[in-house]
Amino acid sequence: MNIHEYQAKAILRDFGVPVSLGVAVTDAAVAEAAAANLPGPVYVVKAQIHAGGRGKGTFKEAEAGPAGGVRIARSPQEAAAEAAKMLGKTLVTVQTGAAGKQVNQLYIEDGSAIAKEFYLALLVDRESGEIAFVVSTEGGMSIEEVAHNTPEKIVSFSVDPATGIMPHHGRAIAAALNLSGNAVKQAVDLAEKLFTAFTAKDMALLEINPLILDNTGALKCLDAKIGFDDNALFRHPDIAALRDVSEEDPKETEAAKHDLSYVALDGTIGCMVNGAGLAMATMDIIKLYGAEPANFLDVGGGATTEKVTAAFKIITADPHVQGILVNIFGGIMKCDVIAEGVIAAVKEVGLEVPLVVRLEGTNVELGKAIIAESGLNVIAADDLDDAAQKIVAAVKKA
């Protein structure tokens, strides 16, 4: 689960992490008063969307002006004017895709005099099973670009869970960022506070870009991006309450209600599979035969007819889907349950695209009989390879 920058900074502030003062607003009419309560005289007006690259983004609407989603204002009145230009408009960045995201909230923050910019992140290193720090002197830039063009400027190291965060970790950060004097002590303190926040709140990612050294020599987190482990949210109702469903794909939100593992993709062939590994293999073979999957969807091992019906509805709700492949290997999951769910869904929402069904395993003959006797225009497949070829061919023919 992701949250907005202003929410991330509120959490970090609770752990003593140095961040600028700021106010979140949803109405341009209150923006001037909100900015007036900040020290000033420079203010930063930031679009709050779940996507990076806001500063370099562009608005679809001409009246929003040529500037991106992060703007400098030199008076409360100017901050309000910029807020009025951005609220309700659609911001397109490298991470939103061409559709962009509507800006419904802004964060008006006190400006900072920046002397140097750095990059700092914490994440879970899947290879070592430890929390890792990633730091770079190239703050304010896309870390992907830095990794591609100048990988030697990225330093990373893991924290042994047996010892936890130690002073030498902060000193390693200071050395990587070429800090000296009091800034080294600040780096040690900052590393400890960020690590504590990361572990206490079950974060999956904590990215500070940029981390700055201001003209007074103080380290400050000028931006903050936090993602949480969904599986740990039951331990953090305060974090779960921060979820902004308007920033999420409606199909993924609906899938979560039915305990379905669903991720929307950019292809044209919808997939309904049981088991994450089989779902990945299904997507791979679709690509092998020259098409692209429209989603990852794992109905799980204990799906009911109702759950399968919900899954089918979610797939068909995607306007980009031009064909559907149902691939079930029945172990715990019974093929007849899948068949009944597919039929129920088709009867309810209709079937306007080709549908290929491959069933194997528990109650396979019963499942095939149910589909055959349904009278639906369903293409049967013998195995995964056969199913992938048939759905790709059917979509191209259509």
UniProtKB/TrEMBL annotation:
EC number in record: 6.2.1.5
PROSITE patterns per UniProt: ATP_GRASP, SUCCINYL_COA_LIG_3
Question: Which controlled-vocabulary keywords does the entry list?
Answer: ATP-binding, Ligase, Magnesium, Metal-binding, Nucleotide-binding, Tricarboxylic acid cycle
Q: Which InterPro entries match?
A: ATP-grasp (IPR011761), ATP-grasp_succ-CoA_synth-type (IPR013650), ATP_grasp_subdomain_1 (IPR013815), Succ-CoA_synthase_bsu_CS (IPR017866), SUCC_ACL_C (IPR005811), Succ_CoA_ligase-like_bsu (IPR005809), Succinyl-CoA_synth-like (IPR016102)
ATP-grasp domain location: 9-254
Q: Taxonomically, which superkingdom?
A: Bacteria
Q: Which GO terms describe its cellular component?
A: cytosol; succinate-CoA ligase complex
Q: Residues that bind Mg(2+), according to the entry?
A: 209, 223
Please name the Pfam families in this protein's record: ATP-grasp_2, Ligase_CoA
> Which residues participate in ATP binding?
46, 53-55, 109, 112, 117
One Gene Ontology molecular-function label: malate-CoA ligase activity
| GO term, biological process aspect, one | tricarboxylic acid cycle
Its EC top class is ligase
Record pathway: Carbohydrate metabolism; tricarboxylic acid cycle; succinate from succinyl-CoA (ligase route): step 1/1; One-carbon metabolism; formaldehyde assimilation via serine pathway
Cofactor(s) it depends on: Mg(2+)
Record text on cofactor binding: Binds 1 Mg(2+) ion per subunit.
What residues does substrate bind to?
274, 331-333
What is the annotated quaternary arrangement, including any partners? Heterotetramer of two alpha and two beta subunits.
Q: Which NCBIfam families match?
A: PRK00696.1, sucCoAbeta
Name the protein family: Belongs to the succinate/malate CoA ligase beta subunit family.
Query: What role does this protein play?
Result: Succinyl-CoA synthetase functions in the citric acid cycle (TCA), coupling the hydrolysis of succinyl-CoA to the synthesis of either ATP or GTP and thus represents the only step of substrate-level phosphorylation in the TCA. The beta subunit provides nucleotide specificity of the enzyme and binds the substrate succinate, while the binding sites for coenzyme A and phosphate are found in the alpha subunit.
Q: What's this protein's name?
A: Succinate--CoA ligase [ADP-forming] subunit beta
Q: Which organism is it from?
A: Methylovirgula ligni
Q: What is the lineage of its organism?
A: Bacteria, Pseudomonadati, Pseudomonadota, Alphaproteobacteria, Hyphomicrobiales
The gene designation is sucC
